[in-house]
Amino acid sequence: MSEPISDADQHRLPELPALxxxxxxxxxxxxxxxxxxxxxxxxxxxxxxxxxQGSNLLSVGxxxxxxxxxxxxFLLVMPFALWRYGSATRPSTGRYLLRRVLRIYxxxxxxxxxLLFAAAAFDHGRVPTAHELIAHLFLWFYIGWNWVAPMVGVxxxxxxxxxxxxxxxxxxxxxxxxxxxxxLIAAITTSIGYRYFMHLVFIDEPVSTLVIAMxxxxxxxxxxxxxxxxxxxxxxxxxxxWQPRWLALWFGAGLIGAIVTCAALISVAGEYWGGHPxxxxxxxxxxxxxxxxxLACAWGAPVAIRxxxxxxxxxxxxxxxxxxxxHVPILLLILPHLPESWSPAAKFxxxxxxxxxxxxxVAQFSHRYIEQPFLRRKPAHRQ
Length: 383
Prior knowledge:
Elements: H1 17-38, H2 54-59, H3 63-76, H4 78-84, H5 93-122, H6 130-137, H7 157-171, H8 180-202, H9 207-214, H10 221-239, H11 247-267, H12 269-272, H13 278-298, H14 302-308, H15 311-318, H16 320-334, H17 344-375
Helix pairs in contact: 1-3, 1-14, 1-15, 1-16, 1-17, 3-7, 3-10, 3-13, 4-10, 5-7, 5-17, 8-9, 8-10, 8-13, 10-13, 11-13, 16-17
């Protein structure tokens, strides 16, 4: 998952608290989506709101992952952008990769150990085979021909993110401003080509299989590169001392664009996986709409500060990785105990008031006792 810029770079770039809160919103959106979907998708109503009402907004909550990916690329490219624009030496690839491993693996392995213990000791879940366990240790989910499904569904996104970690040092030299357009074209072309090919190969398979095949890298490289270029543009502007105006308009335009792209997706939901054109370009379109929001947050637009840099959202952003990892196991633990006679709406509100606070508690424990001790050991980028 994404994180604030490193301590070593604080003297070059400002702290970006609104982006931390934005990360918290992404985790919250994914959590709400899973609660809504697993409670039966109740038609929630928001007074005075039309098309993008409660259930519609939650039905696309998986787009919080798109926000995670774009935000991660925005932040991680910054040390490389400082190097490309002559303000720092090239970051050490070894240090960079070690930092990435320490960001993901401690919390993930802690959760894996807990779930393995629960499966072995209490028969809660299935104990994986030796082959599956090795795949879990290396995040080898749905890769190759002998697919291994993760014990927790949200783990599927971890190898996608880690793939970007590996690719970033290779494509970072191309964030030179003269090559931005070509890098963007290459990323979008690669993503569309991959997704189209996977659709041809898996068109006769169940939609769940088609989703797995199409949503892997390089089918998501476009939104990572879009986030990278936005982060690089922010660094370039800061180094030149440029302070943009009308940031509230940027934020509003990005928000409207994101809502419109989500509404467009909902309107073609029945045709989407059948090969609708949005199937190949939606992630890129949504990420482009996120760019002005990211930039407004990074530059500290007052509206972004009020919405995302407040204490609750900032706190949620700090523990967002734990919230993301733990909300589904907690949800699956509570859901079977709800009466089957309850309506989907009753299940939704009951799950919300139980899963959300429990996820916060477990995420806080993970952040304080698992993640932070390792994060403090992360080597700084060599400048």
